[in-house]
Amino acid sequence: MVADLQRRLVELRFVEGIEKVEHVPFDTGDQFWVRFNQPLDFAKLETIVRSHNCYIVKFASLPSKLPRGLAEMLWDGVTHVITKRVSGWISFSAKLGSEPDGIAKIATDLHGPYEIFMATEEEGVQIVYEYLGVPYTPPEPPRQAPPVKSPVAVATGPTPAPPKPATPAPRPPAPTPQA
Question: Is the pTM of this model over 0.70?
Answer without folding.
Answer: no
